[in-house]
Amino acid sequence: MSFININEAATISGKSIQTIRRMIKQKKVRTKQQKTPQGFNYLIDKDSLEAFIAKQNEAIAQESAQESSTAAPTQNDTNTQERPHRNLHNDEWRDEFKSELGKFTETVQKLVDQNAQDKSNFFGLIKTFQDRIITLEDQIKLLKEPETTWWQFWK
What we know:
Elements: E1 3-4, H1 6-13, H2 17-25, E2 31-36, E3 39-45, H3 46-70, H4 90-143, H5 150-153
Helix pairs in contact: 1-2
């Protein structure tokens, strides 16, 4: 038996550390305790972890197979239907996740760039309107009736 710590188990399984702790608490994997000055750490049997993950993936695959065979999509449901769960190996799952994350990051970056461009255009438009208003105010001042009229000039 080879034992691994919780962090390694999380990395191998692709699950969070908190999920691994729940698995330990529910006794879904074999563990042993390693004494430390602060208390103890759990060490997880690698074989039992891999067996549990394989069993979980099989159950998910069977559920999705049953769902896909019993629920034929209607014409309206084709766009809203979820992607079926694929039983991927951890490396394949990580690669797919990284690919999806990369696409998402690209989309967000495009939106940020577009927002910056729109902001720049908006402030340019405001500056143009301010300049035109100032010009119009100056022209209105010039068109105002002069303070003195021609007959007052001779006084």
